[in-house]
């Protein structure tokens, strides 16, 4: 039996192929128009299918992953041969990384501390040939103001890392360039604020590249990212020294991206399908069978002024919001207090939910139900994402 | 090769068998000492093994689940024949429920609205024999003040539900009694506050049972729950009319339960094992490879006064807290600002994390690494939890 949205078990996730393809094309075209490359991130969806949409207009299918399990998954597909694992590499993960690196063109790793470099040299010396006679390929992660990962570009020790990667230890390394991530863009309150972060990230990254080049070191790639920033890039991006962008969440977007002004509700490519499990007219509330395991417990953009709290909105009825989640249950309230239409939301009826954070929501499901467009109810395919670690 | 905690891939989850068994025994003994039954919840761990620990001292292994996938999982094990699915039942789930009900002694379902009852009658009339010639076995969920699921015990329509289940539609139903869940216990700020909720829940449930019995309806079971409440039960629980308790989270506990005063840190039976992936002495911070997918994005007891924000604490170093999570990365800061010992927390070194919310954390992992005690590093077994829906 072919599933339709009405026969899906709930909770389920549905993906709109046309929306995802459109999001991929627009972001690709934006990069092209600004004269930079795009190296898309896989972590939001973790599927071969969407990875192909993200890269089909690119000559070299360069992708980014957030776990070695994802790296293995995309490498094994045979379709992605240039993969960047963006989390600073720990010594115990070098064996797995070397294996993947030897099986494809290149697995780039991320470093931001001399101990990463030291461990990689030791590993390569102790396991001759484990990398398929390749050198380690690395990006240097620098901190553009987010203060999560990344070496401080103002510290002399950061220049020393470049020196090691490109000169004194260059027998072991192919230095690709620098990489930044502007996660603080999610804490802005307006597109203008995000645009300022975009310019700031590009400037920090571009200036550091110029600085190290002026010291005689190479720096082929200058990669900046985060989906909010990639939605508000400056026109002089290339002049600032950036060579590529690396967005991820944009394939699906989500309620946070809508509320930050990075997309419209119609651009959200993933919904959680849920059913009304009970109604409580006496308190103008109802429950659905999507809770924190289906929607995640990410409260979203709580820093935005006047933002109604909650974990998602009901598609087609923006006044209805998931105001609370427990493990398997979501509570729906009317934001402005107007009466819920309980003739429409009968027990067992289907609702679609725009989740706060599509990366976390998608990670909760073992399969994605693909619909061509939001207007069809027919499930055309099932895509199986990579899971866990 | 047998895994030790040092060779586990990270992030991983470890479970301390002695702690979990102790938690199970203490909660069981508490119920016995108060003269009530215990019907333990499986949703926190979703494993056959822990389900056995929770029920091994009970004659009839009565358990609770939060999804029909869990119900199927525990039914298929052949070891659990009395299962309660606690989410209000929707019409489209009746076929699966009937199948499970017919395969074991009983699958109890939960109702709190006349439309649940109507759909069950229609299903049974249309699918003669689908239930293995059984009637539907049901609990009535009533609202004890949490205002999530549950019929309002003050409304005449709630008495009408009992009338339907026990008289006018009794050909279709075996009425088990009433069930309440005091999720608002998690919003208290002290054990005293939780104890008040416990007495209030027991009183609301007990009084409703007395009321319907006085009207001539049966009410064999009066079941109350939530782990906080079950940690602070009144001595006159039985006199208030309660016949059983149904805690779930207590098998593992977590940081929220510690902070609410329901257990000690040493009672937490589940830790996330993670590695330091980079260090930033210049800002007294470090990163670990456990982020929102390993720890969940549940911010925990943010309502507690003076509670430091975060998503977990480092075991053995309560001053170190996960102050922020992104998908695969946790940021560790020193709560009181004292310098982190970076000689101890070198890149690649193992940390164990007490997560805010063990139910959500456990749900993120496909396997649980079992250690006998916290003092051993040897993984003795791997338990496989039920996943998804």
Automatic annotation (TrEMBL), chains A, B:
Coiled coil: none annotated. Keywords: Lyase, Metal-binding, Pyridoxal phosphate, Zinc. It catalyses: D-serine = pyruvate + NH4(+). InterPro entries: Ala_racemase_N, D-amino_acid_metab_enzyme, D-ser_dehydrat-like_dom, D-ser_dehydrat-like_sf, PLP-binding_barrel. One of its GO terms (biological process) is cellular detoxification. It is an enzyme of class 4 (lyase). Its cofactor is Zn(2+); pyridoxal 5'-phosphate. One of its GO terms (molecular function) is metal ion binding. Residues 269-372 form the D-serine dehydratase-like domain. Its EC number is 4.3.1.18. It comes from the Eukaryota. Belongs to the DSD1 family. PANTHER family: D-SERINE DEHYDRATASE (PTHR28004:SF2), ZGC:162816-RELATED (PTHR28004). This is D-serine dehydratase.
